[in-house]
Amino acid sequence: MRCHNFFKKNLKKFLTKRTPSCIIISVTVIVTDKEVKRGEAVKRYSKQRETILNILHNTKSHPTAASIYEEARKTIPNISLGTVYRNLAELDSEGTIISLKVKDGSDHFDGNNFPHPHLYCRACKKIIDLELPFAEDFINQCATMSGSEIDSHSLMFFGKCSGCKALG
Predict the structure, then answer these.
(1) How far apart are CA 38 and CA 31, in angstroms?
(2) Which residues in 115-151 are b (16+ Cβ under 10 Å) and which e?
(3) pLDDT tens, 89-124?
(4) Which of 47, 80, 85, 103 is found 20 to 30 A from 91 (Cα to Cα)?
(5) Domain boundaries, the chain
(6) Looking at the predicted structure, is the pLDDT value of residue 53 above 90?
(7) Can you say whether the dihedral through the CA atoms of 128, 133, 138, 144 is positive or negative?
(8) Is the CB of residue 99 less than 8 Å from the CB of residue 90?
(9) Pick the CATH number of 115-168 from 3.30.1490.190, 3.20.20.70, 3.50.50.60, 3.40.1110.10
(10) Phi (first) and psi of residue 25, to 5 degrees
(11) pTM here?
């Protein structure tokens, strides 16, 4: 919007700066994938945001912000931890990623934003995606029994993963 306002205000100056045979006007158009509403900030593309999303989409480990930061530094050495936290908060608030709160004191992040249950292993501290065939039925039953409309959920189980259970 600033570019548009600047161009509008300075159009007369641009038009009066003529070369002997032509007028040169340069226009830059920025296109975003987010619908812009009046008074709303435009989400611009950033290499940092793309890198964070790529890290999350290419792992099933549900990393913390600190581990995302370490991984992002391999691509963008000068990225700050604050930038990682800010982008994770924005991605979570817009629903692009899921933030998982567990009892280890750190938030973990999931690039799969489709609501699905997780298991937090108290032994190895891993978060595991659970593919439960009854999950959709369970959510529908909860909605029916409560008389509510459920549009999302967060379901976290706590215990031991199969690997830790096998170790005893």
Answers:
(1) 16
(2) ebbbbbbeeeebbbeeeeeeeeeebeeeeeeeeeeee
(3) 999 999 899 999 888 788 999 999 888 889 999 999
(4) 103
(5) 115-168
(6) yes
(7) positive
(8) no
(9) 3.30.1490.190
(10) -130, 130
(11) 0.68
